[in-house]
Structure formats: structure tokens, C-alpha cells
Amino acid sequence: MNLIPEKHSYDDYLMESDVIDFSHPLIKEKVSELISFQMSESDIVRVLFNYVRDSIAHSWDIQSPRVTCKASDVLTYEEGICYAKSNLFAAMLRSLDIPTGFCYQRLTLFDTPDKGYCIHALNGVFMKDLNRWIRLDVRGNKPGIQSEFSLDEEQLAFRISEDYSEIDYPIIYAAPNAKTIHTLEISKNALNMYKNHLPDFL
What we know:
Elements: E1 4-5, H1 25-34, H2 41-55, E2 57-58, H3 71-77, E3 79-80, H4 82-94, E4 100-108, E5 117-127, E6 132-136, E7 167-168, E8 171-172, H5 178-186, H6 190-196
Parallel strand pairs: 1-8, 2-3
Antiparallel strand pairs: 4-5, 4-7, 5-6
Helix pairs in contact: 2-4, 3-4
């Protein structure tokens, strides 16, 4: 896919916000614990990708009702849905001045269209050494879902089915989608939110 940055300046992909709160002490501490500045850029991104994918549980997978949104809360409780996990991944990378944005797919919520659709979040990361953007999906692996760090061919969690009217959006946004953040902020139970209240279009 030809990825299209929403903004022309990389600075827009390095900004801190209420939900991408990378100055939080817990985030700075965890990043320092996981990486060293002797590591290459690709190794840094790979290590942080693996951490968020594997060590932060997906709320639906563990059937947890807790809703997290802010990157620091996702790290504190070590859980969240894809919207929340992508916030944490972006915060960790931005804390190291690695431009990171937000990408989306429209997917069937479960296995068939009659059960509804949802917007799925992943991240776009600008690799300075390669001078190009790549997409990475920290959703979390489980049987039937396998995303990997790759600099070449994408290995995302989900393949798009055009027969089901699923959509792979090419834009790399500088900020997380307002609908996704609003959903997290107003929801009290992650399981109910996941089944009934996820946005289904950007």
C-alpha cells in the first residue's frame, strides 16, 4: 500500500498530548529499561513494538472490563484495546523523537458482516534510516492473529476482505481519531464497549 502522511512536517508526528503523554515518568522509565542508545533505530522500534504487542494485554482477549486510554494508563494497568495500545506505542516512540502516527482499518467486528463492523487502529512509523513510513500493529497475537515487526513486507494482525466491504485506509494521521478517543473516554466497561460501541467508520 502507498502510505500517505496527513501532515508534511515530521514535527506533527512527535507532538505530546493528553493521551500521548510521553513525558510521564512511567513511560520514560519503561523506555529507558527496554532500550539503550547504542541500539539501531530498527532495533529500538522492534523492541518497543514487541513490548507493547506482547506485554500489554488486549482487553477483549483477557475479558477485562477495564477501559484505558492515556498512554500512561495503558502502561500502568498493562491492558487496553487496539486504540489504547497504539497510544502507548506512539508515546514510547515519540519520546525518542521517532515520528509516529495512527493508521486505521475498517473490519468486521467478529467473523461475518452481519455481526457488525469496527474501526481498528495501528501505527505508522517513520524509519529515518530507510527514509520511509512503515505500518506496525501492536494489537497482540493469539490463534488466528499474528502481527510481526517487519521492515519489508507488512505483517499486520488482519488481512482486508473486500468481499466483506472491509477497508484499509492509507492515511497516516498525526493524532488518534477523535471517535476512537471519545469512545474510550465515555465507556465504563471495555467488554460492552467492544461488542456494542466501537466506531465503524472514520
